[in-house]
Structures are given as structure tokens and as C-alpha cells.
Amino acid sequence: MPSLAELLTHAREVSSRDQCAALDRDDPLGALRAQFVAPPGVIYLDGNSLGQLPVKTATRIAQVVTGEWGQGLIRSWNDAGWMDLPTQVGNQIARLVGARPGELIVCDSTSVNLFKVLRAALALWLAANPAKPQDTAAPVVVSQPGNFPTDLYIAQSAAADLGFELELCDAAQLEPRLADPNAAPVAALVLTQVDYRTGAIHDLGHLSACAHAAGAFAIWDLAHSAGAIPVDLHQADADFAVGCGYKFLNGGPGAPAFVWAHPRWVDKTRQPLAGWLGHTAPFDFAAAYSPAQGIRHYLGGTPPILSLTALECGVQTVLAAEPLGGMAALHAKAQGLTELFIRLVARHCDRHELELLSPTDPAQRGCQVSLRSPLDGYAIVQALIERGVIGDFRASDVLRFGFSPLPLRYVDVWDAVMELARVLDSGTWRDPRYAQRHAVT
Amino acid sequence: MPSLAELLTHAREVSSRDQCAALDRDDPLGALRAQFVAPPGVIYLDGNSLGQLPVKTATRIAQVVTGEWGQGLIRSWNDAGWMDLPTQVGNQIARLVGARPGELIVCDSTSVNLFKVLRAALALWLAANPAKPQDTAAPVVVSQPGNFPTDLYIAQSAAADLGFELELCDAAQLEPRLADPNAAPVAALVLTQVDYRTGAIHDLGHLSACAHAAGAFAIWDLAHSAGAIPVDLHQADADFAVGCGYKFLNGGPGAPAFVWAHPRWVDKTRQPLAGWLGHTAPFDFAAAYSPAQGIRHYLGGTPPILSLTALECGVQTVLAAEPLGGMAALHAKAQGLTELFIRLVARHCDRHELELLSPTDPAQRGCQVSLRSPLDGYAIVQALIERGVIGDFRASDVLRFGFSPLPLRYVDVWDAVMELARVLDSGTWRDPRYAQRHAVT
After folding, report:
1. Are both A93 and A123 inside the same structural domain?
2. Which of A50, A152, A302 shows the shortest C-beta gap to B246?
3. How close, in Å, is residue B113 to chain A by CA atoms?
């Protein structure tokens, strides 16, 4: 097993495609690549937006559709274990983020889950901090302006529901803001651990401690963390977390999300989207709500079984790395890939004023590299996509490349950078058709 | 095309299986049965809980998984039209419930969608009815105690958010309650149109008018209506509606739900689960929320494409009846089936004190028949399931049989009742293993 230092050194020293191929031959995680369908002619650098299709997903979905639904019909809620899927898949994700069995459940979307935990946390805070007549400023929820928009919209809405305001601070200002005794009281810190634009990683443990010192809950969105970098929610002493199933967990387009609440809080909270499957006895059909114990009361409506099945297949592609070093090994490989990409871009695209938006320290980077360009980044990404190198563009000027460590090889990184250099050197991207906007990417 | 009166007369006169087979031969909707996978040896009377698998779903899902996701990857959000699926499937459901194109969208669960519309409606009501110092009673949301539990839990939670109380009135008391000038003001009437336990149909238009006369919004859950009975939201002058994809729309286990807002309200409302796909320009990644025009701002997170695809296949099985009379013809056939079931139960199970819980007037019944028994109804249903007749049990004492008019035949009704009579006459159901509770059915 190569150390992280060795991986980085190798990545920095590469000067030929053959050397990349040699790194791939020595890659102890290389065998896990066969878990994925790889479209011919494509180098896929967008697994941070939609993970690749695991080979076994199609077969498993077909079994669920044809056998469990088609033949088993309603009986499959018991006989095929559908009723337990939110917990069963949740327990598998729990292993990737340092949660314990029974603490994490799969349901709804990241947006909806964030609403639940934020409302739950703010209600707890209000109970512990009743308003006093001398209060001059409304208490706040703190986030950063670069958080993923849906998190900001939901935070704004959930905060307003209970009389809080949303306050945005740049990343560097978060710590002093939380420590400021003269500013409005902070009830919750809501952050996405890995920045979707830059890939910069927040220190989960340190910022959670800063939030706690301010009397605030630490609420984390693990959208670009789960399946990408090592996360230990308990070690970090986080309070609540949500995350996404369709990025590094390879759960398929629009896969359901997950939600976790620290066991010290979960049974003290009530979440506002109280649905029947969160009831302590759903099949009693009682008119009065009585929440289930533990994280199960964060369930609401009936879980989407087809999407949950695909998510389970995706999560298992990541769990397959457990005997090979797990998330630490996966992130180490991703650091090797991103470091190689950065070095090669610097060497082969140096005439084109690309700026590295991601942290230069590999340990500070999630599984992505973002570049900024004074040229039309959107058109450059479109020209690359047409040539089989799929990254994405994030307004206003970010070329974003994801490096999912399971399916990607070092030669893919080499080939992608050579293509980027050709597109830039040739000016191909200036063809007006590349500037035409689509809805996505 | 037989008239409803003829269908009912025939159903009432049947006294042999051969006569049922003759009705099936003459059934103009009979050819639509081939749209469904029919497990051998099963008579499925639970399509009101989980619709049967359409034949084409497995193929279509496989295309989406293997082709659109596996090969197209992130590009399929544009190239395969994934981004438009919530609207595209919504427009198809709209045709079944009297909504216009662009007014109805598929997303989230019924529970989550009910929370959105109820919060949106109550905020509108508050804006139009500001609190006055002389107000003595909190304004209320009215529902009935027999509404589906999730609707009550969500209504309670959404109402409490904005200072409303939930008031429950038996069905017969709804109209006088709404007309009572001395009771607390009513902001919204929230009902499931077809009662999940009894199958009784509320008069959508009349109760909406009563709500309006009281200054309240009429909010309808169409879970057991969409794809089951004719619904015309505009003719009924309803204000908001939600509904379920996995019952009579045959969308598969946990299929996403739908939401509709009357065009007179939709752009005046703000729903609390403001997610990025409800933003007017999601790919601008703006920090401030600006809702999309129309029902699209009821979208939140990324839509579950696999489940949406299955739902589209399911909805199309119902739309296939449009040239044959559409929802009116489907409900007419269901009335024929339920009438036959009731008559045959009365004739063949008359020794067992079964009580008809569903309305005796076929026009007042959705596509189900509920029986009450002084015996252990749960065990009776389990014994039937073991013999291939799948209905379900709803606490505390309801044997519920759904009659999805697309896949079911008159001979199925005959065979089901004969099996019920055998189970009751023989006392088979008294075997202790049938009393052991499962999670579902």
C-alpha cells in the first residue's frame, strides 16, 4: 500500500503517459474500477455531480422491478424487506461517515432533510435559550455565502420559521464571528463540509467545537464528503448531518439523501415533516402523532424503493474499499489524481492564464479541482465534453473537474489534461456553438 | 360501451362464474389488462396500496439505467430530458385530475407536498386576515378524524408553525362546522377525497364551495382518487391538491407524489421547502432565493429519475383508457366490480356477520370495498393472502379490498369471493400463524 506522501511524490514527478500507466498498475484500488460501467471514449470527471453506474445496479434494479414488485407486489414490503431499506442503506452509509448503526437513515432529498434538522435544532435552541425582554438582536443561523444555494435557501426559510435570521460569513470569518461576544447569538452553524465550487474542506471537528463554544449546533451537509473523504461525525462531535446519494455514493440520478442526528439529541427533537412512517407504530393508523424512537422519526412518506435499491448498490461500491484502507485510501488516491491534474495543467496549459481555485494543499482538497479562466469557461467545458472529457461549469467562471477515486485512473488524468491543452491551444472552444447554454453542466 | 346502469345491473344479476367470464368478454376496457404483469395464482385486490407492475416499466427502467445513466451520465440531464421529467410526468397526471398543462408537478412525497401547500395557503390566509386584538380563538385548519394519518400529522405540524390549530370533525359535521359563524375562523379545509378506510368519496366541488364560503382554502389529497375516479380540479374550484404515485397510478413502490396549485394562487404563494430546483435560474447558483414562476417553485431537491421514470410508465397505463372513455369508464368498471363483490359477499358469506363499511351507493365509492368483521380480520386477510387473494387489513378491524379497474376481471371478483367464503366457512383463518403481525398488510 503506497503512503499518501509516496502517492503525491509520484503524481508530481510524472512526465509521460507511460508513467501514469505504471501508477495504475501499482494502484491497490485499481481492481475496484471494474465495479463501474465505463462508456467508451469517455473520461468522466463529473462523479462529484453524478456518480458512474455500478455494474451490478442494472441487474439488481431489474430484480426489484420484475421480481419484488411485479411478482411479490405489496407482500414485498415485508418479504423483500422494503420497509427496512431506509435503515439498512442508512447503516451502510453510516460506516462511511463515522456514525453508528441505527443513527442514520435514508429518505427524501438533501434539501428536505436539511429543513428537518435545522428546524429541529433551532427548536431545541429556543427551548434552552428563551427570549429575554432585553434581547436586541434576533438570534442567527450562520453559514457562508459560497454554501450550495439550496442550503442557503432552506436555511433562510427554516430560520425565518422560528424567528431567526440567516447570517453569511466568508470562510475565514466564521471562527471570529462565532467567538464574537458582541454579535447576535448564534443558534446553529450550517455548512457544507466540502465547498461545491472550490473543493476546499472545512475542519469538521474544529468548526463544530467553535460552534459549541458559541452555544450553537453544528449542522453539516456532507454532499461532497460522503464517499469522497474520511468523515467521523462522532469524533468531530457534530450535532446533525445530511448528505447526498447521487454524487460519490454512486446512487443514480436524484438518489435519495440521508440524515443523521447525534444520539444525544435525536429523541429530544421533533422534526416538522412528521409523516406516517416516522410514527412509532405506523400501522396502528393513529390520529395523533407519536414519533418513533431514534432517527426513524425523521422518515416521513413512503420510501422510494427503486431509487433506494440503486443507492444501496452505489454505497456498496464504496464499502468495497474497506479491506483496502477505506475512505482514507480513497481520499489518498484522489489526492494523487488531483495533484497530478494540477501539475499537468500547470505544465501543459500554462499559456492560458488558468487559475487554481482549489486549495494547493492536497489534504485541504476534496475529490475535485476547480480552475478559473478569463476565457469563456462554459464554452471550454462544452468543447471538452464533445471530445469525451466530461467536467462541468459552475457560474460564473469555474471549470470544475471531479476525481472519483474508484473508477478513475492516472492515465485518465493524463488524457484529460492533454485534451484540455489541445482545446485551449487550438482555440476550438471559440466555435460559437459551444457558448449556447443548456440547462445543466 | 355499456352504460354505468347496465354495468351495475349485470353485476347485481351474476350468479355464476360463467356469467362473470361473459362480462369480461364484453368489457371494452378488457384489452388494457395486458398492460400489466399478472403473477400466476394471484388475485390482486391491493392496487389501492401498490399498483401492479406495468409490462413496459422494466424495459424502460433498464434503458434509463443502462443507457441514460450508464452511457449518457451527467449529459442526460439535458440530452435525455431528465430536467423536464417532473413537469412532463406532471402534465400527464394533470389530464387525469382536471388540471391544465404546467399547473401540476411531480416531486417529493405526498406528506412533504401537503406540508408545502398547507404552509403556503395558511401564509396567504394570514396576509388576507391579519390578527385583530379582539380575536379570542386561534384560527383553525379543519380535517376529519378518519383522514389518512400522515395528512393529520403534517396538518398539525404545518398549522402549529403559523399559529393555527387543527380541528377534526366527522364527515357529516364538516358542512355545518364550516357554516358556523360562532366557531373559530377556518383558514383551510384539508381532506383526502376518497377515504382510505371506507372508500367513501367526498364531493370535491361542494365541499370546496363550503370552504370558500367560510373564507377557507380547499386543499385536497387525491391519493385514492388519481387514476381511480374522475376528478376535475378546475370544475370543483379547488385551491390546492396533492396526490400519490404508487396507488392507482401504478408508479411503483414509493413513487414520487404530485402537487397542484390553482393558477390564481400559485405565484402568490411561497412554499417553505425552497430548494435550488425551484429557483427561477438554478444554474446561476445565486445566494438569494428567487422562486420560479408557476408550480415549478414547488420543486426542491434533485428529482429521483428512476422512480419518476417508473411513474411515467404507470401513468401511461391509465392514460391508455382515454380513447375508451377515460376516468369515467374506469370508475364505471370499478363500480361494476365493487358492486359484484358486495353482492357476492352478501350471498356467499352471509353466515359470518361481515359488515359493509363502504357506501352502498356505487357512485359514492372509490375503487375499493371495505368490510368489517367481529372475527380477527387480520388473520382472515393473511389466510386469503396465502391462498393468492391479496387484500389488506387496516386497524382496528377493516378488511380492505381494492379494485383497480385496469388489470382486474369480473372472474377475479368471483374467485376472490369464493376463496373468502371458503376461508370463513372452513375456519382456516383460526390457525394461530395467521394472527402473527407483520409490518405491513
Report:
1. yes
2. A302
3. 10
